[in-house]
Amino acid sequence: MSAPAKLPSCPICGKPADPKLKPFCSERCSDIDLGRWLSDRYVIPASEDEDDGDLPPARKPESE
Ligand SMILES: [Zn+2]
User: Which of 20, 31, 58, 62 counts the highest number of beta carbons within 10 A?
Assistant: First the structure.
């Protein structure tokens, strides 16, 4: 296939990017990428000096 690749392909869906939104093809894909980026940062296993508590201080369910 020889497509005139003037614009980069959208890294999200692979469609030709929109010049205004490149390298994405749409705001939706841009948002998706941004979301991935943010989630990546949050997902990073931050096993630094954080308290090594296994669970967050969630209140225990009262059992009768
Ligand atoms: Zn896209």
Answer: 31
